[in-house]
Amino acid sequence: MTKQEFLNRYLVERKGTDSLKWDALDERFGQDDLLAMWVADMEFKTCDSITEALKRRVEHGVYGYSRASDAYYQAYADWMERRHHCETDRSWIRFASGCVAAITYVIQVFTQPGDSCLILTPVYYPFHNAVKDNGRRLVCVDLDAKDGRFTMNYEAIEKAIVENHVKLFLLCSPHNPAGRVWSEEELDQVLAVCCRHDVLVCSDEIHQDFTFDGNNFVPALMVGGGKYRDRLITVNSASKTFNLASLLHAQLIISDERLRATYDREIRGRNQTELSIMGLTAAQAGYEGGEEWLEALKEVIWDNYQYLKTELGRKLPKAVVYSMEGTYLPLVDLRAYVDSGGMKSFIQGKCRLAVDYGEWFGKNFRGFVRLNMATDPSLVREAVGRITLV
Known about the structure:
Blueprint: H1 3-10, H2 20-23, H3 25-29, E1 35-36, H4 48-60, H5 70-84, E2 93-96, H6 99-110, E3 116-121, H7 125-132, E4 137-142, E5 144-146, E6 149-151, H8 154-164, E7 166-172, H9 184-196, E8 200-204, E9 232-236, H10 239-242, E10 250-253, H11 257-267, H12 277-289, H13 291-315, E11 320-321, E12 331-333, H14 343-350, E13 353-354, E14 356-357, E15 368-370, H15 377-389
Helix pairs in contact: 4-12, 5-12, 6-7, 6-11, 8-9, 13-15
């Protein structure tokens, strides 16, 4: 499927459909006439295999209590092996309504109120909230930024772990919004630090299927041949891959028997939610039949990013468009042109854009904005034009 064929078949209008991205602008930004370039959600219908599977389920007409079928587990295992060379076992898998919910369960089960949890900023703002809202102590270490690319500062990470007696590290891989696809060497180094200091790691890998420009995603489970599995819990979902967020379905992968037993014992009092039959149905259908759709989508996203980077580089050469090795949500540093304190006035007041602001992801990233590339190319061109012409 070509890029244009994809756009012709799957591009859809989201306004007026109770879309958070478009129909909650007044609630979220105080203005309802903005061009929505925020939140990790797309303007594309999901793949045909998912739509057809959901139609069959709807025609059956019963939406009662359901379980994950053998076919579901096989589809997931095949996807992980085929796409990411990652072995899984159905006994390792537990379910949640989403990756943020899964992270919250890990925090609640494996830490106590007042314990320290580490994040690497700038990072997805629900990480911050999940720690603080559960009465844990948030410890932040900034990623190093140089030449439009973020890297981990292992000395700073280790120092923060030791000084704050960190119990849990929330890893984002690929990293949102830094756009990094961590190499196995990078993951090995940071996981080794956690191992030295007996820190549990929860790796959010929801963006695992969005990698670009020759970068390869390495699941934390597979680092060093799996040598860190005794302190590792992975969370992932088909929700970002196939634009299924409201179907409320995600996996926790707990390969270590001891961790799994602790989780199973402690989660009973925290999560009694049954599985979403629509989430299961959609995810399985995506894993079984969504690859052609995904590859065409990634071509659209990459072309949108290249346009953003090229045009800003040409018209605002001091703006820094950060590397998008993964995810579809690059960061842009506009501090050379706009005072960081006036960013909202510029972006909303002059450009009439709704974006995710850098300070949402980390206090030291005011003056940055995150822009969504999983959208209509004409909207990317319009957004870039507004930024560069005002």
